[in-house]
Known about the structure:
Elements: H1 2-21, H2 25-39, H3 42-48, H4 55-70, H5 76-86, H6 93-97, H7 103-114, H8 121-135, E1 138-145, H9 151-165, E2 168-175, E3 183-187, E4 190-193, H10 196-208
Parallel strand pairs: 1-2
Antiparallel strand pairs: 1-3, 3-4
Helix pairs in contact: 1-2, 1-8, 2-4, 2-8, 3-5, 4-5, 4-7
Amino acid sequence: MAELSTLAKPYAKAAFDYAKEHNAINEWERFLSVASSIVDNEEFTSILNNPAISAPQKTTVLMDVYTKQASGDSLLAKTLDSVASHGVDVSGVARVLGMSPSKALANFIAQLSEHDRLALLPQIYTQYSKLKSQELKQVDAYVTSAYPLTSDQRKTLQERLAVSTGAIVILHEEVDPALLGGATIKVGDKFTDGSVRGKLKQLKTQLTA
């Protein structure tokens, strides 16, 4: 996985730099998110691994299936299955739906396909999202609490974390009754255990030391 992440970095950087220059950061992120889910599809994997399907054909399939998925078409899986089984040329679907992706996005996918790098799209999406967070000075905070946070608790936590990190804080919440009370917070490599379970564990350690 580390190797794939390393390979994906220059592509993610190139995509982000272009998107930033053209004020299309969110558009590219949405595209990479959907494209990643397509690449993870079992039927599309069979297309990637099929030597009889050329790089331009793989580009066409991905872009057209992207358009169908972006439009909420429930026939996505059937379309992929048909392409994988019969090598059907589905070019033109995007034009029919009137939702053709921008030329830059299509060119980006074409370059990935030409260098046999379409399988890297999930890693490229992850790296791109990190670059976006750094650019916008956003940080992800993973909060696990014994009980659901109230709106006031959530606001207070975000404000305090924003002050300590100097960034906009995106909260990811999870409830775990086993904590008994309080919460744990993870921001980057920093982990804070303010749960009742954590305090009891610490007390036990001190008593048995």
